[in-house]
Amino acid sequence: MTTTSYTPAAASDQAMWGKVLALHAHVERRLTQALQRKHGIGLSEFRALECLVHAKAGELRMQELADKVGLGQSSVTRLVGRLFAAGFAFRDLCPGDKRGVYAVITDEGKERYADARGTYSEVLSAALNTAGATPELAGTVQALRSAH
Amino acid sequence: MTTTSYTPAAASDQAMWGKVLALHAHVERRLTQALQRKHGIGLSEFRALECLVHAKAGELRMQELADKVGLGQSSVTRLVGRLFAAGFAFRDLCPGDKRGVYAVITDEGKERYADARGTYSEVLSAALNTAGATPELAGTVQALRSAH
DNA sequence: ACGAAGCTTGCATGAACATGTATCTTGTTG
DNA sequence: CAACAAGATACATGTTCATGCAAGCTTCGT
């Protein structure tokens, strides 16, 4: 009838997604502020460093990094540019394919990540706790945590 | 228990939040593209219209709107400016408090919202389904839907 | 009670920044 | 050479932070 014939869970999906959005906004805002204030880096930078630290040899192709941090390809070009400007990473040519570029983390980048990691973890759990303490989001947080 | 010195659930919180981020990025991207392509409005505009439609008299104070859509105060000033430029809303002075401003939805705004509402609902459910079909996110989506 | 000083609140504006889309450059491959 | 792939760049948008301004509120001296 409507565009698709019949979408049974659409209404509850919408209510559910509204809570996810509220939770996401709440948590991400706190993480952003804490990382910026205590360590001088943004959330995308932190997550990129995290990916690089855990990657083999501390390096990733640009497109791989884009997928892992959930950004577009061009955003990652500039993100790595920022990491380079801050001394946390550099670009390296891919030996086999001269089109390819590796983003490589530096020792300084590893240190900054190690510094910020604790903050991230603490603030994340704290933000989830405060969100879970509100009646509106309690069920959502609990469901996510139970599911692991 | 120990919120500060020792956070037992921190590690799993981090893993869990990574999945929420992936899900959020996936779904929001699809919603953004669908609304922009089919109805020529952004996600924030759609959500603002939704808040206004459901608000008493179709009007909200700027700060109320900011809270509901999860944006900062200045972002909402500009968001309502865009809605005004598109003919979907206008500003009205608050009678009691001359500092206050109401954002009021227009008939045209209500129509555009009614048009886009179906798209939003369908794309949301579809995006949740595709995400839930991946082994990585299946558990997360299921947990959220069960919790409703 | 009056009223002015000082703080707070609600919104607007300008500059900086991050992101997405489209396009361009360069390199690879058939 | 044609077709395609990986990144870089140009441009337009949207978001935030810091700031500014105007209106309400509070307090205190007279």
Verbal overview:
Chain A is mainly α. Chain A has one domain (15-146): Winged helix-like DNA-binding domain superfamily/Winged helix DNA-binding domain (Arc Repressor Mutant, subunit A). Helices cover 69% and strands 9% of the residues of chain A. Chain A is built from six helices and three strands, in the order ααβααββαα. Chain A has a three-stranded antiparallel sheet with strand order 1-3-2. In chain A, β2 (89-93) and β3 form a beta hairpin. The longest helix of chain A has 30 residues, at 10-39. Chain A is globular. Chain A starts with 9 loop residues before the first helix and ends with a helix. The model of chain A is unreliable at 1-6 (pLDDT under 50). Chains A and B meet through α1, α5 and α6 of A and α1, α5 and α6 of B. Chain B binds a DNA duplex (30 and 30 nucleotides) through residues 32, 42, 44, 61-63, 71-79, 81-82, 94, 97-101.
The top-level CATH class of chain A is: Mainly Alpha
- Gyration radius of chain A (Cα, Å) is 19 Å
Largest interface: A-B, 38 and 37 residues
**Pattern of helices and strands of chain A:** HHEHHEEHH
What CATH architecture of chain A would you give?
Orthogonal Bundle
Q: Bin the strand percentage of chain A.
A: 5-15%
Total number of domains of chain A:
1
CATH superfamily of chain A: Winged helix-like DNA-binding domain superfamily/Winged helix DNA-binding domain
Distance between the termini of chain A: 39 Å
Q: Main sheet of chain A?
A: 3 strands, antiparallel
| Low-pLDDT ranges of chain A | 1-6
The dominant shape of chain A is globular
InterPro entries (chains A, B): HTH_MarR-typ, MarR/SlyA-like, WH-like_DNA-bd_sf, WH_DNA-bd_sf
Protein name (chains A, B): MarR family transcriptional regulator
Organism (chains A, B): Streptomyces achromogenes
